Amino acid sequence: MIRVLLADDQPLIRSGFRALLDIEDDIEVVAEAADGREAVELAREHLPDIALVDVQMPEVDGIEATRRIAADPALAAVHVVILTNYSLDEYVFEALRAGAAGFLVKDIRPEDFLHAVRVAARGEALLAPSITRKLIDRYVTQPPAPGAGLADLTRREREAVALVARGLSNDEIAARMVISPLTAKTHVNRAMTKLGARDRAQLVVFAYESGLDRSPGG
């Protein structure tokens, strides 16, 4: 069962998402929050698999709530997905840097929304490569520099991270690198450990900020 926390200051938005989730046999809404502070408190109380967090909320916004959840070791298994009204919201990239696993636009189709919740619950990033590149191009103004920990990655781990940044799944990475899916997953997981990344979304951010996505063979 996928346990979900909804955090949005608009009751109508929360009720709409809840209505979609409640009819699914494998998803359970365990709590609702009206602001970021309450979202963090309820995350600690209920330990959901997914926290759907609106980026703009009173008192504590979605970015700060994401940062607090990501910084709490007890909430390491909580995947934060940012809800936004615009696909290129100026706050989205900052939320990814704060530890969000991805983002969803509120006008998403119901079937795509449900699919996204299940994808996030598996620990996969909700980041379309084309949208991610637009975010990076728009909000990362400094030229790429060698990222912290880049030298610690093996050549194959760097290659795997570069392919993660292109939106490839472990199976697709395996096919591209001509290795087994299990080995691809191992490369990705080891890179996450070495870089201190919570999930694949942070690997994407790292790849773009370090220029790894443009490396030869990437």
TrEMBL record:
<feature type="modified residue" description="4-aspartylphosphate">
    <location>
        <position position="54"/>
    </location>
</feature>
<dbReference type="InterPro" id="IPR039420">
    <property type="entry name" value="WalR-like"/>
</dbReference>
<dbReference type="InterPro" id="IPR011006">
    <property type="entry name" value="CheY-like_superfamily"/>
</dbReference>
<feature type="domain" description="HTH luxR-type">
    <location>
        <begin position="146"/>
        <end position="211"/>
    </location>
</feature>
<keyword id="KW-0804">Transcription</keyword>
<dbReference type="InterPro" id="IPR058245">
    <property type="entry name" value="NreC/VraR/RcsB-like_REC"/>
</dbReference>
<dbReference type="Pfam" id="PF00196">
    <property type="entry name" value="GerE"/>
</dbReference>
<protein>
    <submittedName>
        <fullName>Response regulator transcription factor</fullName>
    </submittedName>
</protein>
<dbReference type="InterPro" id="IPR000792">
    <property type="entry name" value="Tscrpt_reg_LuxR_C"/>
</dbReference>
<keyword id="KW-0238">DNA-binding</keyword>
<dbReference type="Pfam" id="PF00072">
    <property type="entry name" value="Response_reg"/>
</dbReference>
<dbReference type="InterPro" id="IPR016032">
    <property type="entry name" value="Sig_transdc_resp-reg_C-effctor"/>
</dbReference>
<keyword id="KW-0597">Phosphoprotein</keyword>
<feature type="domain" description="Response regulatory">
    <location>
        <begin position="3"/>
        <end position="121"/>
    </location>
</feature>
<keyword id="KW-0805">Transcription regulation</keyword>
<dbReference type="InterPro" id="IPR001789">
    <property type="entry name" value="Sig_transdc_resp-reg_receiver"/>
</dbReference>
